[in-house]
Every structure is written in C-alpha cells, then in structure tokens.
Design a protein that fits this description.
The protein is α/β, with parallel strands linked by helices and 309 residues long. It has two domains: 7-213, no CATH class; 216-308, no CATH class. Helices cover 46% and strands 11% of the residues. The chain has a six-stranded mixed beta sheet, sandwiched between helices. A hairpin with a 5-residue loop joins β2 and β3. The chain starts with 6 loop residues before the first helix and ends with a helix.
C-alpha cells in the first residue's frame, strides 16, 4: 500500500501548483456533480504557510460550468463558533467580488465547502448541504422567482442566488465507500486510495501525493509537520493533566472544609470520566486509537465508539 501524505498538508504545499489542480478539481466535481475548474489560490491570512499556523485553513477560488464562484475551506481546529466563521467567510467572498458601482444583480454565487476533522453540532450524517429558502408562514409555500427575475439572474430558484454550504464531517464517515464521493471521503480520512476506487481526481492524488515522490526538502518539511501535530496533541494532553490534577487538589481541600468528602469523591470520579471522554474525542484524527487509549486510560473499544458518534 502506498503511503500518501495528509490532504491538509498537500493542499497547502503541493496542490497550490497549477500542475496539480486536477486533484482538487476531481474532488469538487464529485461533490458538486459538476465540472469544476480552479481559477486561483486566494492569497489571504488563512493561506499563509507558517509554523504557527497550527491548524490549516485554505481558501480557493474556483468556477463551475456556469461560472459560479466557489469558496473552499479546509479546517482542522476545534471551533465552537465555526458555523458563524463559515458564514463570515462566504459573506466576505461575496463582497470582495462585487466592485464599487456594480448592480446587486451582478453578485456572484458562492459555495462554501468545509472539510471538517472535528465534531460540529449534532447529526447522524457525514455530509450536510445548506441553502437559503423562504417559506410562507401561513401557506407554507416556498417563494419562487418570476419569469423576469429568471431571465435577469439566469437562475431558476431563489436559493440559487444565495450562498450554499457543504459540511463534510470526516470522523462520522463509516468507511464504506458507496459512491465516488465516499471514495474521496475515505481518502480524506485515511490517506489511502484503494485499487478499485474510480472517483475523479483520485488517480492523480495517488500519483502526486506519494510520500516517496517528494523531494528530500519536501519530505523533511512534511515529517516536521507530522511531528508538530503529535507535539500539539501532547501539549494539549499535558495542559489537560496539569489543570485536572490542580482541580482535584482544590476540590479535595474545599471538600474537607465543607465535610462533604464522599460526595466530592463521587463528583471527581464522574468529572474524571467526562474529561477523559472529551479528551479522547479531541484527539481522534490526530493520534491512533491505541495511543489515545494509552493516554486516556479508556478502552480501545470505547475510542472506536467515540469515533463513530
């Protein structure tokens, strides 16, 4: 089995080259069921490949067959306000592509594609699609474009005028590739492409993301990046342990003062288990199941179940 580099590193380093655009174009074509062409990599603060950029975010500007602008973001960090940041990114793209004096009818279409390696919200699926619809509060009908508006905007629905969002929750994927998009998600989760996969762009990814084909300089940079991910996880684990132990110490002292040692101990044990579970969830995707189990004291079966939740 070929060893492939992680997709987040590839998109920041290798896939920025026009010679390698076919990889991302294949992925987007499968996701959006359209022919996608990359126009450029957007040079923004989120695209700066610096060491302190611990968790990757990358913006790309692409066009589909109808010349619509698409915003792609790769995100690894745990952000509870990610939904709002995602909306801000799409809104910023809209305003950046409307020149002063242009009519509102010239506003471009934006599709925000978000590949998430952390839990976001609650839901059973691993791919979510969001769009704007206007529903009547009395008749429950959906607002439609009239014929003049269809001609003006070259669209058939109201929702087509507003940003759309795709959320791909990698950790929720059950590893069963049912269609070409699932084949891509399998690769995004495991950095592995099975021999029978046929999705657009995957063959190019198999060839261009092979670690053995990296230059000595690029391979050294990649290994440093992987080491940094492990270092971040270790630092998180250490800070968690220090804070937890300090909290236990303070809790015992308060418990002695108030004479509720038994209740305190029970609370500590419940809190300890909850913290272990939270820590394990945060490390899924960064460390292997065996390592997470060793670090947290949870069973490997518990870790596997958490990765499915």
């Amino acid at each position: 089995m070929r060893r492939l580099i992680t997709f987040d590193w590839a998109i920041k380093r290798l896939l920025r080259s026009k010679a390698n655009f076919d990889v991302l174009e294949g992925f987007l074509s499968e996701l959006l069921k359209d022919e996608i062409q990359i126009v450029e990599v957007l040079e923004s603060e989120s695209n700066k490949a610096v060491l302190k950029d611990k968790f990757n975010r990358v913006d790309l500007k692409v066009k589909n067959s109808r010349q619509q602008i698409i915003l792609i973001e790769i995100q690894y960090d745990r952000e509870y306000d990610y939904l709002q940041r995602m909306f801000y990114g799409a809104a910023k793209t809209v305003t950046e592509h409307l020149a002063e004096g242009q009519a509102y009818g010239d506003i471009v279409k934006v599709i925000s594609v978000n590949i998430l390696y952390f839990d976001l919200g609650q839901g059973e699926d691993y791919v979510y699609h969001g769009e704007t619809v206007f529903t009547g509060i009395h008749k429950r009908d959906q607002l439609q474009l009239n014929e003049k508006q269809k001609t003006l905007f070259q669209q058939t629905t109201v929702s087509a005028l507003y940003p759309e969002y795709y959320l791909i929750k990698i950790n929720k994927f059950d590893d069963v590739a049912r269609d070409p998009l699932d084949e891509w998600i399998y690769f995004l989760k495991h950095e592995e492409i099975k021999a029978h996969f046929t999705a657009k762009g995957l063959q190019a990814a198999c060839e261009k993301l092979d670690i053995l084909k990296l230059s000595a300089e690029e391979r050294a940079a990649y290994e440093r990046y992987v080491d940094d991910l492990h270092y971040q996880a270790s630092m998180f684990l250490s800070s968690y342990g220090d804070g937890f132990n300090e909290g236990r110490k303070e809790g015992r002292e308060e418990g002695r003062e108030e004479g509720r040692e038994e209740g305190l101990q029970q609370g500590i044990e419940q809190g300890r288990q909850a913290e272990k579970l939270a820590l394990a969830r945060s490390l899924i995707g960064l460390l292997g199941i065996e390592v997470i189990a060793e670090k947290t004291g949870l069973s490997q079966e518990t870790i596997r179940q958490l990765s499915k939740d």
